[in-house]
User: Fold this.
Amino acid sequence: MRATVTGFEVHDIRFPTSERLDGSDAMNPDPDYSAAYLVLHTSDGSAGYGFCFTIGRGNEVVAAGIDALRPYVVGRPVPCTAADLAAVHRAVTHDSQLRWLGPEKGVMHMAAGAVVNAAWDLAARRAGAPVWRYLSGMTPEELVALVDFRYLSDALTPDEALDILRAAEPGRAERTRKLLREGYPAYTSSPGWLGYDDAKLVRLAERAVADGFRQIKLKVGADLDEDVRRLRLARKTVGPDIRIAVDANQRWDVGEALRWLAVLAPYDPYWIEEPTSPDDVLGHAAVRAGQPVRVATGEHVANRVVFKQLLQAGAVDFVQIDAARVAGVNENLAILLLAAKFGVPVCPHAGGVGLCELVQHLAMFDYVAVSGSREDRVVEYVDHLHEHFTDPAVVVAGRYRAPGAPGFSARMRPESVAAHTYPDGPVWQTPKHPS
Ligand SMILES: [Mg+2]
Assistant:
């Protein structure tokens, strides 16, 4: 008899990162990195793991969203084929009543992503493969059938997607070998949090270069004079050959972005990330057209439709997928295919809790089976909280090593889950965490 999903546990996990200003930027000065964490259990004793990343308050809302999807998973057969995973994605994104809460954006959509990703983790674990390899072993036809093409066909048809995947198929084995040998390029945001003082910025920037990173990122957007000073300091520290991206975290209106970037441009920022609202497609296009710095966005882009428009409007130079904001692997596959169609490199967003662990699989799959390229592509890396995962991301000499463990690298250590459960875990019981 086929195994069924029998257990669906949702945990509210929070880390008190605001104490040290890790993760601080112009819009988010005091994040407590958090995960609404889902564990699936099966009737034959296996388990799958998924999560949404949040920055503290509201994590319980996302956890409730995940819980609302329980009926689509519990009591159902364990997903173990591409067709099963397409069905899970369709089911959790097309509930006729829950859809009203989006549609396909916000808390319910993120919750759907956690469920979809947990299903992928479960299926890949049972197949004995890391998700990047599990995906890379699927046929172009299976991959195309994973995607919901509704609202996309004016920019990308299933036949065009099939052509992209078939064109990459002959090189899959060779690129897999290269990936296993060389890894995938990373950049680090660790030096650039807005709350860090100059000494810490310099120390971490020096360490990044010594560790082999060829790109770092600084937060900007709170104070122009300060941004100029910090950018000059960073440039002086790393020299002319290291790329320095800057990230405004949605802080500006369009005119403000243009004025600010005119001042920063002489210091050669590699890209400006999230210059304005993630919903403002035409605003991004205006920023891109109105100044010389390349434009990147995507970590808060709600779904494949907005990515489609950003690409159609020529609004971005880099697409920054996030593994846990849209509806999981399936929707990110749609976005990878759109980016490939438009010839725009994908440079995934990561950091947070477990985002490096997840998104590395999607970038590696993109290289092996979709775009076929690592040129101008880098995955963000932030050196925080990896110790809470059983299969942490490994970055050596500025490159992600290809994960070898089965699954999506999504499983947190049980002792970390117990310690950081909010509000009753021991980490939250001391007086220094009054919230
Ligand atoms: Mg960012």
Q: What stands out?
A: The CA atoms of residues 225 and 263 lie 9 Å apart. The first helix runs from residue 59 to 67.
